[in-house]
Amino acid sequence: MPTITQNLPATFAVEAYGKAFGLRAVKYPEDMPMLYKWMHAEHVVDQWQLHLPMPQLRVHFEKMLADDHQRLYIILCEGVPIGYTEIYETARDRLSYYYKAKDTDMGWHILLGDPAVVGKGYLKPTGMMISKFIFEHTDAKKIVVEPDSKVEVYKWVADGFAYHVQRLIDMPEKKASLYFCHRDEFFESRGYLNFYGAVAS
User: Fold this and answer.
1) Which of 5, 166, 186 is nearest to 98 (CA)?
2) Quick check: pTM over 0.70?
3) Residue spans of the chain under pLDDT 50
4) Which part of the chain is the Acyltransferase MbtK/IucB-like conserved domain (predicted)?
5) Taking a C-beta distance cutoff of 8 angstroms, is the pair 160, 190 a contact?
């Protein structure tokens, strides 16, 4: 029987801020040169710690793609790849060691790989697109994320979109801020209502 993430569509698209944002499933091995470049970008290295030689990075992504509790996507803006996201089932993820996960809870990680979009306001529309995608295509009542507590930008992104910090958690590689986002609050938030003028396709 297919898992929650295996049932997710391979593509998704929305209009926000006058731009077309989208997701497409990672293509292996075609996307590896781009992912290698992103993982070695200066702004990515400390957070992701995947600045590996290509053979080791390919092994990493082969394992990730074979893991049926998650699905990997490339983030697009106007059809151009700008980042990468992992969407996963938290009850089957290591995050379940840090809070009591329900079977329907979902989570995501995000990487804006293209240096040209970093610090230019793209984190908010892409994070919101991923949240919309999850809630519209799963039975999740809650999304859980755990960014590094040192990354202040996440607090700004969460404000107004019903992502509420619960507590700090000590993970092996970071002290993380544990955020919950509940379905009803998300769709009723002023951020969501002001944000999307188009229907996802």
Assistant:
1) 166
2) yes
3) 197-201
4) 24-71
5) yes
